[in-house]
């Protein structure tokens, strides 16, 4: 299937997915990949499908959505592998932009140092870059890159791309349990801080079955730690976490419980902020105790302060 959806996405609104890569053709073999281990581990760009064929399929899906009165916010390259391995990516983006809907690409960033890949990505309206590690050893452990790749070259390529890109730039950092992050989170945050025009840095956890059985999503404490460290360097408005609550259910409803759950699904709330929200809604602290008791909220401590965040879905029974 060359095109699918549209599906709701927290980052992209309603997104029509484009699959321009055959299954598991990737320059990485991430330990958390929801598609399993990479079978075609390559870094050489190739032609997989005809750009006209992809355009036709996407146009058909767009027309179907229009006939159902469905909105599409982005046409998104989110294939079963790494989209920049497609040597026709730039041509496809140019064709698709004629439809009049913004085009997004979710890439693992591994080939961004190549001039042709950079030129292709510059044509998109939104680019999401994977940055799981800032040091070689952790990068090798988590992303398991194809031979011939170098993290330094990739990080330089990302910085160069950010300088030139005029569209919306976001990043995603996946956090895994039992990984010793030590100073890594700070190093990633420092790198992100220097990126020109970065709109949002997402901290994510794997929410679907991973390639390696031992891989578990990071615990709430680690997600909160990453959020706090990233926020210190980038500002709170630039950091959110993605912990499996996708969709558009994040608008304020005026109902205090729902609002609390919606806000804490995106970022942790400091105890004082929670108290303030309750005060404005004329509600009592009992509401929080109930949400904690029902295992919907969790209390985490960071540098002496208490924070409240959504219980990670995979750790909540009944989800
Ligand atoms: S980069 Fe994406 S597709 Fe490739 S192995 Fe990692 S998670 Fe899977």
Question: What's the short story on this structure?
Answer:
With 319 residues, the protein is of the alpha/beta class. The longest helix is centred in the first third of the chain and has 17 residues.
Give the SSE layout.
Elements lengths: L2 E7 L3 E6 L6 E2 L13 E2 L9 H17 L6 E4 L11 H9 L5 E5 L7 H8 L3 E5 L5 H8 L7 H14 L3 E7 L9 H10 L4 E7 L15 H15 L4 E4 L13 H9 L4 E2 H10 L5 H8 L3 E6 L2 E6 L9
Parallel strand pairs: 2-5, 3-4, 5-6, 6-7, 7-8, 8-9, 9-10
Antiparallel strand pairs: 1-2, 11-13, 12-13
Helix pairs in contact: 1-2, 2-3, 6-7
The chain binds iron/sulfur cluster (SF4).
Distinctive features:
20% strand; binds iron/sulfur cluster; 8-stranded mixed β-sheet; 319 residues; 3-stranded antiparallel β-sheet; globular; alpha/beta; disordered C terminus; single chain; 13 strands
